[in-house]
C-alpha cells in the first residue's frame, strides 16, 4: 500500500470514528422513485463519425430498502433512447442509440448530531450501449 493510500485510509477511519455512535433498531422500509425526461446530445460519443443526434428520452426508477435507521440498500435502473443522422462518408444514414443503466449500492448515513447528515455510498453499476446504424 502506498503512503498516499495509507494517509487517506487513516483520515477516513479517523473521521468516521469521530462521529457519535448510536444504537440502531432494525427497520424494514421500502421506497420507490421514478424519473424521466428529455436529454440532449451525448458529448463526443462518436468521436470518429459525424453523427448529429437529436433530443432523446430517458426514464427509470429506484428502489431503496431500509435495513436500519442509517443503513439502506439501493438499486437503480434507467433506459435512454435517441436517434440521429450519421453523415460520415457523405451519406445520411439513420442511427439509434439506446443505453441501459443498472446500479446498486449501500448507503450509510453518518450521525453528526447536527442538521446536516453526510453519508457514504458504495456500489457499482453497468451501462449497456446499443448503437444501430452505419458501422455498427
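^ Assign residues to that structure.
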Amino acid at each position: 500500500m502506498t503512503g498516499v493510500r495509507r494517509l487517506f485510509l487513516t483520515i477516513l477511519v479517523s473521521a468516521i470514528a469521530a462521529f457519535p455512535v448510536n444504537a440502531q433498531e432494525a427497520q424494514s422500509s421500502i421506497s420507490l422513485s421514478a424519473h424521466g425526461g428529455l436529454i440532449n446530445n451525448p458529448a463526443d460519443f462518436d468521436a470518429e463519425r459525424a453523427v448529429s443526434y437529436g433530443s432523446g428520452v430517458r426514464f427509470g426508477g429506484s428502489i431503496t430498502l431500509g435495513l436500519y435507521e442509517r443503513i439502506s440498500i439501493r438499486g437503480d435502473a434507467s433506459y435512454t433512447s435517441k436517434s440521429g443522422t450519421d453523415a460520415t462518408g457523405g451519406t445520411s444514414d439513420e442511427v439509434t442509440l439506446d443505453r441501459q443503466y443498472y446500479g446498486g449500492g449501500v448507503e450509510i448515513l453518518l450521525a453528526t448530531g447536527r442538521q446536516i447528515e453526510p453519508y457514504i455510498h458504495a456500489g457499482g453499476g453497468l451501462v449497456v450501449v446499443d448503437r444501430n446504424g452505419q458501422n455498427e
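DSSP finds one helix and six strands in the chain.
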